[in-house]
Amino acid sequence: MKLFRTIATFALIVTLSLTAVAQKKNKGVYLFGVSSAFTDTVAYFTTVQYLDTVSLTKAGLLPFTPNYSSQLENYLEVMQNESKQTAAIFYSPTKKKIDKERSKLMNRYRKKNKFNVKALPAEDFTFTPLDIE
Fold first, then answer.
1. Rounded-to-integer distance, Cα 34 and Cα 47, Å
2. What is the pTM of this model?
C-alpha cells in the first residue's frame, strides 16, 4: 500500500509538472520593432509589447512576422509621413531577453551607425495580434 501511494504521488507530481510546462509554453510573446530608411538617419524603435494571444510555433518562430513588420511600416508611412521605411521585428518569450536585445540594438544604432533614435511610445503605436484562423 505504501508503494502504491508513493507511485501515485510521483505520477501526480509528473502530471502537474507537464501541465504547467504546457501552459507556460503558450503564455504569449514579447516583441518590439525597429524601422529605418536607407536614405535617412532616423531609426524608430517601438516599446517592448506583450501579446498574450500569440504564441511561438514549435520551431520557436513568430507566426506572420512579415505582417507585424508591415503594421509598423504602415504606421510610419501614414501617421509619421515617413516613406520607404524598412521594419524588423524582434521577439522572445521572456521579457528579460527582449529588453536586453532592444537596449543592445539601440546602442548599436546610436554609436556605430550614428542614427538619431526615436522611440515610439505605446500610446502612439501598438502591434495588433493576428489570428491564425
1. 10
2. 0.76
How does DSSP classify residue 86?
Answer: E
Which three cell numbers, joined as nine digits, stand for 60? Answer: 520557436
Three-point CA angle 114, 120, 122, nearest 5°:
150
Q: Which of 14, 98, 102 is nearest to 56 (CA)?
A: 98
Grid cell of 71 as nine digits: 503594421
Ranges of H-type helices in the chain: 2-25, 65-79, 95-111
Q: Residues 38-59: pLDDT tens digits?
A: 888 899 999 999 999 998 999 9
Rounded alpha-carbon distances, angstroms, from residue 32 to 51, 56, 73: 11, 15, 13
Q: How far apart are CA 34 and CA 121, in angstroms?
A: 13
109 within 8 A of 43, measured Cβ to Cβ: yes
Cβ-Cβ contacts under 8 Å for 70 (sequence gap 6 or more): 87
Cβ atoms of 42 and 118 within 8 Å: the answer is yes
